[in-house]
TrEMBL record:
Coiled coil: none annotated. Residues 127-247 form the ELMO domain. Transmembrane segments: none annotated. PROSITE patterns: ELMO. One of its GO terms (molecular function) is GTPase activator activity. It holds the Pfam family ELMO_CED12. It comes from Balearica regulorum gibbericeps (East African grey crowned-crane). This is ELMO domain-containing protein 1.
Length: 247
């Protein structure tokens, strides 16, 4: 244990010394080197995020969790702290802003998704009921729903007469994703539903959709989707990006 602790501090000190030497030789700090030497996208943003989080400066560490409205001020603070002249390095501020928008946006997306996941389906809420009925109309446009509580719901993969009981695990998030898929690409959604009813496949469309929502949620929270979102979202990733990933 003692040897491991000593090795950790040795490597940490060695790394800081190496960064100092490289800055003196190149005339650029780590953030500058990343922005100038790495193409826009996940590679750059993740390096910037790691650099800021690993900084010995508290101001830099907290820059990855600021409010979106404070990003411009945060960029100014970073430039001042790193003694970078924005007039000589105009592109650096633009690159840092794009990276921070993605980093902060990812954190905010987790909060938004978590809020939907924690909100239970409420059959007394007209908006919830409207979304549920929209799901049916998208998937079964030629088969009118005879009643709100009906065995017809089993035709699109729910377990019982009232779908609200199936949303317990993922809350409204599960419904949001199913409705988005059914609206965003109706033809494909109907084909997937049709396949689910074939003996060759035989799976519950709605239940599998809710389970895939659970998978996407866990990948998001663990950070496993960062690479994907940092590549597809030029700025802050949104709920729409999450729903497209689900699809």
């Amino acid at each position: 244990m003692f040897v491991q602790v000593c090795l950790y501090f040795y490597c940490k000190c060695l790394w800081r010394c190496l960064k100092f030497v490289v800055r003196k030789l190149t005339g650029r700090c780590e953030l500058q080197r990343i922005c100038y030497n790495t193409k826009p996208g996940a590679a750059r943003t993740m390096k910037i995020e790691a650099s800021l989080k690993g900084s010995k400066s508290k101001r830099l560490q907290t820059s990855v969790s600021v409010h979106p409205d404070a990003i411009e001020k945060t960029i100014d603070d970073i430039m001042e702290l790193k003694r970078i002249n924005p007039d000589i390095n105009p592109q650096l501020g633009v690159s840092l802003q794009a990276c921070l928008l993605q980093i902060v946006g990812y954190r905010n997306l987790i909060a938004e998704v978590e809020k939907l996941r924690r909100e239970p389906y409420d059959s007394e809420n007209p908006q919830h009921e409207e979304m549920l009925l929209k799901l049916w109309k998208c998937l079964k446009p030629n088969s009118p729903l005879k009643a709100r509580i009906s065995k017809q719901w089993c035709e699109i993969g729910f377990q019982g007469d009232d779908p609200k009981t199936d949303f317990r695990g993922m809350g409204l998030l599960g419904l949001y994703n199913l409705v988005y898929f059914s609206e965003w690409d109706t033809e494909i959604a109907q084909q997937v539903l049709s396949d689910s009813l074939q003996p060759k496949y035989s799976y519950s469309f709605a239940i599998v959709g809710i389970n895939i929502t659970d998978l996407a949620y866990n990948l998001l929270v663990s950070g496993a989707l960062k690479t994907h979102f940092y590549n597809v979202a030029p700025e802050a990733p949104t709920l729409t990006h999450f729903q497209q990933t689900f699809c």
